[in-house]
Amino acid sequence: MSALYRLTGVTKKYGPNTVLDDVSFEIGKSEVVGLLGDNGAGKSTLVKIMSGVVQANEGEFHWDDAPIERMNRDVTERLGVETIFQDSALVPFMTITRNIFMGREITNRLGFMKMKQMDAITADVLDSVVTIEGIKSPKQLVASLSGGQAQAVAIARAVHFKRSLLILDEPTSALAVRATEALLNYLTHLKSEGVSSVLVTHNLHHAYQVCDRHIVMNHGRKILDVRREDTTVEELTAAVVEGAEGIRRYREGRF
Amino acid sequence: MTDRRSTGADAPIIEAPLATEAITTQRRMSDARQSTNFGGRLKHELQFIRGRGALEITIVFVVLLVGYVIASLVSPTSFAFLNPNNLSGVISQAVPVLAILGLAAGILMIAGEFDLSLGANITLSAIVFIKTAEGVGLWAAIAAGVLCGVLVALVNGAIVVYTRIPSFIATLGMSFFWMGAGIFINGTTPATLTTSRDETMVFLFAQDFGFFRSQIVWLIVIGVLAWFFVHRHRLGNHLFAVGGNPAAAEAISINPKRVKLMSFAIFGGLVGFASILIAVRTSSMQPGGSATEDFTLFAIAAAVVGGTSLLGGRGTVLGIIIGAALIELIRNGLLLAKAPGFYITLFVGVTIVIAAIFNKLMEGKAR
Ligand SMILES: Nc1ncnc2c1ncn2[C@@H]1O[C@H](COP(=O)(O)OP(=O)(O)O)[C@@H](O)[C@H]1O
Ligand SMILES: [Mg+2]
Hints:
The complex is a heterodimer. Chain A is an alpha/beta fold. Chain A has nine helices and ten strands. Chain A has a domain at 3-86 and 163-251: Rossmann fold, CATH 3.40.50.300. Chain A has helices at 43-50, 73-79, 96-100, 115-128, 147-160, 177-192, 204-210, 233-242, 244-254; strands at residues 5-14, 17-27, 32-37, 58-63, 66-67, 81-84, 165-169, 196-200, 213-218, 221-227. In chain A, a hairpin with a 2-residue loop joins strand 1 and strand 2. Chain A is globular and about 60 Å long. Chain B has a single domain, classed as ABC transporter involved in vitamin B12 uptake, BtuC, CATH 1.10.3470. Chain B is an all-alpha fold. Chain B has a two-stranded antiparallel ribbon with strand order 1-2. In chain B, helix 6 crosses helix 15 (293-305) and helix 8 (138-163) packs antiparallel against helix 14 (256-282). Helix content of chain B is 76%, strand content 1%. The interface between A and B is large, with 54 and 47 residues. The complex binds adenosine-5'-diphosphate and magnesium ion (MG). Adenosine-5'-diphosphate binds next to helix 1 of chain A.
């Protein structure tokens, strides 16, 4: 089966710093991929490049085996890549509804928004996707939400507009335990509907629970790319904490 | 972080997530929200009062208006607020101009930008309107005046958007350029409406209907259109998105440059139109003059008094119109009470600084 999304030789420099160094991997159809690594490993940068908001210095991108000539957000939007960024996913002084429909407003032919319809859908989405406690109305400003609630809204938006690939950068970091469980279940559910996802997280238990494959980043390099059945939580831990050295030690220790 | 890394092999890392940037920033946000000390609570309260929009300013406006009406009924001679000459001659000419300029500045501020060449734009657009009216005719002049406003603002906007020079600096600099352009096309003598200031022109832009004038009708029309655009149209929604969080807007594939250019164009169109109202009212315009310069800050003040954020992302059409009306009401009150005219300038200056302090207080929240 051909890959949904393939990245080859992605390199990104910020000034003299090489943040991503020759990174290649692919995301299969209906696959949940865990993107792991310590702080500063380059995960968020990779996510931004995959979603087209940041341009790589080098690298090739294939979608369904067709090359993407010029990567940018318009292209990934058309392909159906939906991303929740770790920072800055929402506009604080807009309502929940306006945030969820930002850039995808339901309008009449003249471009005027159908507020009632959008509010109703928002209320539904907030109820069904991730249970979010304490949100009173879709008309509430995002600025009035807690960190976890806001993150849940961002997730609700992403899954509502799901199309082919959902990328979540540290989605569970501010979520309550129940909401986290719901989100992880939802990723599995999306998979059964043919939607792939990339889960960036520090919590290896979360990743191990739902991901079919794990990619571990270390100082801008990919050091591990394994299917779930070929690894253990211990190996992933060693890779994240100690890098390539940790993987070697783990494997030596095991055999 | 480093000590965690070295002890991580004992596997605390799989028990609980490490303290990522996300967790720490989120915690900081919710800490501020639940803060129990006075400063934190005050800050929190202020943030929410401002979030509600134009309510407070409407109350202030209504209270002041009622006060004026009572004062005018009690002593019609010493405080002639309700005198038709005052209502029609002063209020209904001054409020619409400032309100339209306030909407212009406010829409741009919602998108996160400023245009400090507003005054120079008025001068140039008014001169273009006058010269075209005298040379060609009224309808061509209206189109030329508005178009001039749009072009001036679009040039400014293009400089700001493509060079990423802060709009303060870029548009302040361009303001001198546009002032010079006015002198270039008209010399140093005033441009004057003479034969072209006919019945039609006056009817359209300055007709006296007893206690109100044509300008009020224009304000209502423009206000309604602006409200539907800003608060109900998808492009209006994009203004708030781009001004409130450009990165989030871009991530969802809204193009901030395009949205900002659009807001500069709208700004220019409104300024061009206001310059026509000003030209018809005064019948002449002095190139390079300072007569229009006050409008720059007054327009920003109207927007700010009406609840528009100096940081972008917040503002309401109704608030801005009431903000403009409030400023003109205070100016009129000072005039009627025979207080020196510069008091209003003091008021506007202090208002902007207070608003800036307000915004500073809220910065932690919005970013
Ligand atoms: N816009 C930027 N400019 C300069 N350096 C950056 C920028 N974004 C990220 N970096 C650097 O790139 C490295 C990787 O960051 P990031 O992708 O956020 O890592 P992660 O998400 O894995 O914690 C860090 O050293 C960070 O300082
Ligand atoms: Mg990150």
